[in-house]
Amino acid sequence: MQSLDDVFTRLATSSFRRRFHLNVKESDYLHRKGMEVILEHAAGFIEQRLAPASPAKDGKQTPWGKHPVFVAQHATGTCCRGCLEKWHGIPKGRRLDAEEQQYIVEVIEYWLSREGNIQSSRRPR
């Protein structure tokens, strides 16, 4: 898997990915719940919506907002299997392993910590 610096350098070239930002409600939710809880939500969303080899409604399974993780997924290209393949080199058609799922959570955490101005508790890759 790629380093987070490399991924975010590439993502910065996309005007589509750069347009995503947390709104006031999403930012407040992130700060109220805290990064640890939000990342637990992220892990659950990834397991349910992204990890299967053929996710239900792939390409449309991630809502556009109403939760900081969903916004982060669109901003980071971790919203569907096609984007995972394009932006992160994780191929479609097979179940995501535990390491890949953890990597996706780390990508989301990296973006949320920068966007929400919240200290990340983990070290980036």
Compact summary:
With 125 residues, this protein is mainly alpha-helical.
Give your account of this protein's structure:
By secondary structure, the protein is mainly α. Helix 4 crosses helix 7. The chain is built from seven helices and no strands. The chain has one domain.
C-alpha termini separation: 9 Å
Could you give a short account of the major beta sheet?
none
Helix tally? Answer: 7
Number of β-strand runs: 0
* Cα-based radius of gyration, to the nearest Å: 13 Å
Q: Provide the helix percentage.
A: 55-70%
> Given the C-alpha coordinates, what overall shape results?
globular
> H/E element string?
HHHHHHH
Return the structural class.
Answer: mainly alpha
Q: How many discrete structural domains?
A: 1
Strand content: under 5%
pLDDT below 50 for ≥5 consecutive residues: which ranges? none
If you average the pLDDT, what whole number results?
A: 91
